[in-house]
Amino acid sequence: xxxxxxxxxxxxxxxxxxxxxxxxxxxxxxxxxxxxxxxxxxxxxxxxxxxxxxxxxxxxxxxxxxxxxxxxxxxxxxxxxxxxxxxxxxxxxxxxxxxxxxxxxxxxxxxxxxxxxxxxxxxxxxxxxxxxxxxxxxxxxxxxxxxxxxxxxxxxxxxxxxxxxxxxxxxxxxxxxxxxxxxxxxxxxxxxxxxxxxxxxxxxxxxxxxxxxxxxxxxxxxxxxxxxxxxxxxxxxxxxxxxxxxxxxxxxxxxxxxxxxxxxxxxxxxxxxxxxxxxxxxxxxxxxxxxxxxxxxxxxxxxxxxxxxxxxxxxxxxxxxxxxxxxxxxxxxxxxxxxxxxxxxxxxxxxxxxxxxxxxxxxxxxxxxxxxxxxxxxxxxxxxx
Length: 385
Ligand code: PMP
Description:
By secondary structure, the chain is of the alpha/beta class. It folds into two domains: 7-42 and 284-384, Aspartate Aminotransferase, domain 1 (Alpha-Beta Complex); 44-280, 3-Layer(aba) Sandwich (Aspartate Aminotransferase, domain 2), CATH 3.40.640.10.
């Protein structure tokens, strides 16, 4: 029998995070800082709205683009938060999580051979998504010395005649780096002069701790060449509901909608009703979670630095990204030994790309108590190496 698997799929490496979860699952008394999701339940009023919609028999497909009331809510949210104007009729598509939004956006714009500049370190799905579209991911280093931001110099150095798309995510998973509106302005000339499309994954925007949250498309020069990706998973603790969205200029949206309607038809209906409620009446719950994450971030990052692990203060998302280069072992070995010998699960930074090397991703979306216990265990491990 021949090998039926496509060459494209065979080329994609398996997730580097999985291996650590598999080891952790076999062990007892493990504190996991490996997870990438909030440790809260979805706010009750959001769950109730979903239950109500089921009771009322709202169980059919919605329009391909999503419920108009939800698209109007998204449009209102973006206008209020960033002064952006998106037409709910033609410029917003509700998707099955930001994951689907990323996939269909990339598939709609990448042709074989196109290079996609990826702000590195990056969310693990990006390079695989690009490769599934037969594109070539090209890392753009976002370094600790620059606060893990995307700088004009770094971007310029990575551009080639084949560059078509710039894919970035701020606040960043895994580094916690954040771009301000001025930071986006600083790269806008390069994006325009090189005729690039920007795909900006802003799923962690609500989790910005100091200063104003920023959206790339609020920069006038970028608005017409940006696909904004966002969702409900992080801000409203709704990872299991699988609901997100993308916004883009009409012509691009029409192309993306073709892919969406053939692969998904519409996002889950119950979740769309929940998302309407989240935008309308869950801002307080979101702010409460952000307040708690901020406290944990401060405790955890100070604790790590005291323990001897140099850690940049992240300004967004819920990850700390300590630097382990001074210990003379790789981030994989550090993570594996920390797990096996001291029962703390973290993710090696190199899983997220070349610029993640010599770092560890530690999620602080866990209780303060667990965070402090983890810091104690990390300190013990450091004293041994
Ligand atoms: N983008 C980033 C940067 C993420 O970290 C995640 C989830 N970990 C996603 C997208 C996917 O989000 P969703 O649950 O909306 O599919």
